[in-house]
Here is the input.
Amino acid sequence: MKAALRRRQGGALLFGGLASVVGFLAFVEFTSGVLQGYYAPLLTDIARHLGVNDADVNWLEGSQLMLSALVVPMLSKLGDQVGHRKVLIWSTAVTLAASIALVVAPVFWVFLVAWAFQGFYVVWLPLEIALVYVRTVAREDAAAAASGPAALTRRAAAVLVGALEVGAIAGALAAGALVDTMDVQAVLAVPAVVVGLCLVAIILGVEETPGASLANFRRRDFDMAGLFWVTVALVLIMGSLFVLRGAGLAPDRPGFWLSVLMLVAGALALVRFVRIERQHPDPLIDIRMFTDPALWPVFATAGLFGVSVLGAQAPLSTFARTDPGIYGYGLGTTGFQTSLIIGTYLIAMVAGAGLLPVASRWTSPRLALLCATLCVAVGFGLFLPFHDQIGQVVANMVVVGLGSGALVASLPAAAAAAAPREQTGVATGLTNSVKTVGGAVASCIFGLALATTAAAGIPGPEVVPEITGTPDVGTAGSFSGYLTVWIVCSATALAAAVLLLFVPKKAFQ
Here is the structure.
């Protein structure tokens, strides 16, 4: 045991070789899965705990997704310069601090900021893949020579993604079981403990990238101007939607025109960002790839897919928890029942990812992906007539999950195949970023739709006079808002199916 326990560069304690490192990283991805699945059944309880409406929890998802879109390219580039392990530790420390802040946050806006910064965990998987690949390249034994770095990295990635899915399912089920028996703050403390253990695992079990050093960071070469302007643009755009949430769609309210002004300013900042990226020798985001005829359909498909796979998570949870006895719609599920619905959806996603290669061999890769997007469109379309019973909602989500799992597994590969050989990694990362931005914008728009009430002339929650005073009365999202969510998700999936017809054939080879 003492012989196996040894010091390596970077100060990490390693137990064995590559398999051991992948094992530690698998726990990191398990933690990432827990964070992604744990909070979904709790969103209604979080809204009550903070004294906000169900519609407001969509802003949590929107803010975290938008920050994620900035974090991934920035920290990935930084990891290449100063060391992937260092950045992995830093991002985990930020995630831990944010997870602790969620437990003690006294008001919604503090919780919102902490929730956004917890999104630093999204960079873990890209950093882990880079760590594994560099380590396999450095190996000189016979197994590495026979398999090759790419093959070994793919196997490691499969293990990591599997750990993520297991963590997401375990997190959803655990949260649903705990919230029915424990105080919300105690339930919120569980992810902080798991992230703390994750940080310890990284420090003890992961070694640094060979040759990495803080001395490698060159500020003049890092695209600081691009980072600044894209941050300004996204903050202004997100801020305009947040202001519009409070002002409503009435032009006679001062907040309405402030939101319009912020949106215009955000668009101008985005134009400035594009100009800077076109001139920078090593841009944060390679804008030219968005004009590539082989790649733009893939990116557009990813953005449209992000609307449903990321933007619709919170509405699904809050709709399930809405009491039909009070509002006339919803399922009135407990926390654990909600977690079972979400867990079934996640299992369907795993099944969809696994069935994609089989379907591709039976038909063709393009047709298999078209069927996947149509599954998403049909699944959300089924919500319009069928949403009154748990069995109906579960059936709808299984259909959606099968299509979503196939798309999650295939879109990055399609982007890599369609891109020039020297830009495959960048194309894959951009696919994820575009999907994230699509989900962030959708989350904010869905929040506005769910906040719409009868006061604006659109059907909203029905408040029953006999039960006025019940804590949940007046806090649910409007039924018209949920209809909007389902229609938009179905329509964007149909649009994605059309765009897949324009993706070049080489992307499916």
Notes: The chain has 19 helices and two strands. Residues 149-179 form the longest helix (31 residues). Residues 173 and 339 are 5 Å apart (CA to CA).
